[in-house]
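Sanity check

After download, print the first record. It should look like this:
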Amino acid sequence: MLVNRCGMKRLTRRDARRKSERRHGTAEATGLRKLEPFPVIGIGASAGGLEAFSEFLRHLPEKSGMAFVLVQHLDPTHISVLQEILSRTTRIPVEEVTDGVTVEPDHVYVISPNTNMAIEGRVLRLAARSLVRGQHMPIDSFFQSLASDRGDRAIGVILSGTASDGTEGCMAIKAAGGITFAQDRESAKYSGMPQSAVNAGCIDFVMSPKGIAEELIQISKHLYTARVASETEESLGINQRSGLDELFALVREATGVDFAHYKQTTLQRRIERRMVLHKLEKLDDYLRYIKGTPSELDELYKDILIHVTGFFRDAEAYGALREQVFPNLFRDRKPEDGPVRVWIPGCSTGEEVYSICIILLEYIWEQASNMPISLAAAKEIQVFATDISEASTRKVRFPECLRNG
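Expected structure tokens:
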């Protein structure tokens, strides 16, 4: 698939890196990390969010075994009374976050005004409010850190609000193996924010606040949620080789892709995630379900292919391209030699593709005076990107209308 001829003068490396950090955080999914056996629920809300979150809390028991962290868009110039208001709604302890507080189950934590918040090893950290391209995106910021810190134990919920804060954070949570919720249109006072996440394809459940609370209670009781993750764990009967072989055969028949030799721990996490969503606790149960619900094969396939990607993620590799590969590529090159072709296999949603385009163009522009080609050589560079996921490659394609201005 020909993705682009590098007509990319609007996107700089700094812009791309900022987007990557905002979207995916700074760490990979942590499915093998030793984690405390309780979920941390990140909840994002804006306009209309107070009513939605109050309704959500009213349907939670005092002891659920889960921790809840609310990231609400707040006026940075006013003292927040959110903690006081919510404390009247629930018997669960509610506290406004101070820097360094440790997250405990059966507690509600509310972001302080005029701050960004992150979680590191169950500890909530506060930083001064910051803008991303002129916008304050505290939900994305916290959800990305939640995905990085909690891995497949992270859960994200988007409630009422406008704009799109939380969408990229939910993408990070789902890529880490977590579970995501969005408030439905019927119950949301403002549906823009939850609908943005739904449209992005990163939401598992669309429900009312009451429905979300009830579903979370069920998830908290699942064996997968209650386990303590470790490298040697054999949970949910997933280690049953014959069952896995049968499951992979079904996926191969439906998609043409053989996952039998993929990383087993990653596959286990993806299968377990699907089992949680359908309230199934044994692999045999999931096999029966998938045989009776052909669409589930496609959903499992999509889950397996979720990738954590980003702009300029491996600085050392990009440095090697600039210092070693590009000089040899263009040394003694003549205009009549034809186009330079670059192929990026496993391109995911394209951040790596555009990163390579950017550094390649930068190199050409910087070295043009010493090379036997002119800046016009940029038009003779073809970048090909391929991925097993058609959904990913659709996102990679640079719209012609944008390229032409």
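If your output differs, re-run the checksum step. Summary of this record's structure: The longest helix spans residues 351-367.
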